[in-house]
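WARN no homologs supplied; continuing
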Amino acid sequence: MKKTILSFVVTLFVSSLVFACASSYKGTAEMNAKWLAVNKEVTQMMADIQKKMADVKGIAPAKLAAVKADLTAATEDWNKALATAKAGKTADAVTAGTAVKDKLAKIKDALGITAPPAPAAPAKK
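OK structure emitted
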């Protein structure tokens, strides 16, 4: 009887460990997907901003200085997010990356960078 109870407890314990590992793996996969999406968006936003910064015309010098300061801060924050992701803290990296994305959106607005229009739907025949 004691062996049966012990066997049951061990089986239950191992089953709960397997379930916990599988659940945490799923969460990690979801976070990895979110990180990849944020990484792609931030990288594109930074490229758009850098392109615009190379050809700034019609922007007041004070506004341009503020944009440059904001871009420097966003770049520093992005480097921290990348380091956090590299350290395996994907959820923290997603949070940090999302904050950077918000900062970059404000910079894009300040520079007058708009999103490209959505592709037109094909004409029905």
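The longest helix spans residues 2-54.
OK
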